[in-house]
Design goal:
single chain, six-stranded mixed β-sheet, five-stranded mixed β-sheet, 11 helices, 11 strands, 16% strand
Amino acid sequence: MFARRFPSKLVRKFSGHRNIAILGIETSCDDTGAAVVDGEGRVLGEALHSQQSVHTKYGGIIPPLAQDMHRENIEEVVKKAVKLSGMEVRDVDAIAVTNRPGLPLSLLVGLRYAKHLARSHGKPLIPIHHMEAHALTARMTSRVDFPYLCLLASGGHCQLVLVKSVTEYFLLGETIDDAPGEALDKIARRLNIHNLPEYRRLSGGAAIEAAARKSESPQSFPFPLPLAQMRDCQFSFAGLKNSARRCILAGEKEFQVNPGDVMPHFEDFCAGFLRGITKHICHRTQRAMHYCEEEGLIDANGKKSIVFGGGVACNDFIFEALSQLGTNLGYETFRPEKRYCTDNGVMIAWNGVERFRENSAVTEDIDSVDIVAKCSLGTSLVSAVQERKMPCQWVKIPLLKVPQSSER
C-alpha cells in the first residue's frame, strides 16, 4: 500500500470559504483503492491494495478471486485513507464510488461498502464512471481547460474522447478488439522477458519499454500498421499481437531457444513492437485532432490540449511520441502523475470533487445506484468520424524515425 498525509487544518479552508472533501472508493478490477481529496486537488489521505502479483500467477484476472480479495481488504484500505487524512467519514461531503464499467463481482464490493458508509454517516453518494475518472485526473494537478482531447489507454480500453466539460463527453474512436496494455502484457509474457532478473519486477509494458530502449537496431523487427486503409479513429491491437507471437515463435525455432528462455535480439524485437503500437496510436490521435478542429469541437486557433490517461500512460516512450505529435500540431500534452495513471482511489475522489462542484450525479437516493458492467463514455461520434473518411498527412515524429545508422 502507499499513502500520503497532509495536515488536517488544510481540509476546511479554501479561498475564505469552507472547502469540500470527497472520499473516493475504487474496486472496478483488481486494485482496492481509497482516498480523500479536497477541492484544491490535495490528496489528504490515500491507500491502495494491489492484487497484481496474485493474478499474474494465473496469467490473468480471476473475477471470483478478485472479489474475495476486495472483500478482505476494502475496510482496511478505506479506514487507512480516512485516518491519514486526519478526518472521519462524517467530515467528508460525499462518497464517490466506481459503479461502471468493470468486473461486476469487483464493482459490487466497492459499491456495497460505499452504500454502507453513506447510510451510516448520512452522506450523499456520487456514482463514478471509471473512464471519466481517468479522463479528468490530470486536471487535479495541471491547468487543463475544457474542451480537450483525451486518449485513454489501459489493459482493458483504448479510446479517444473529446472532453467538453465535467458532464459532457464525445467518443471519437475505440479499440475494435484488444487493448494496448493487454497486448503489451501478453507479449511480454510470451517472450519470457520476466525470467530475466532486470525485468522480473516490472509490468509487461514497462519491461518491453525498458528492453526497447536498449535496442541498437529498432528497425530489425518491422510490424504492419493496423487499419491503415480505414480513415477513422478506431484502434486494433489484435493483429500486432498475433504478428508478435509469430515473430517470437520463428525466432525461438531459428535459434533453438530452450523453454523459458528469451530469444536473441529481444531488445530489437521489443523496440519494433513498441514502435508499432506507438505509431498506430499517434496516427489515430492525429486524425482525432484534425476532426475536432474541423468540426469546431476544439478551437484551431485557441489553446489546445491533449490528455493521456490510463495505465498505458505510464509508458514514457508513447507519452514522448504523443508530446512530439502535439507540439507539431500546437497541442500541450498532459498526463497525471504515473501512480495516478493506474487504477486508484484518488482519481475517483477527484472525479467526485468535480461532480460535487457541478451538483451532478450527487444523490441521497442510495438504493437507486447500481453497477453497470459495460457502458460507453459519452455520446458516440464514431460513425460520424468514419463517414468523413478524413485523409491525413502524417506528422513525422522524431522519436519514431529510424536512425540513419540503422537503416538498411
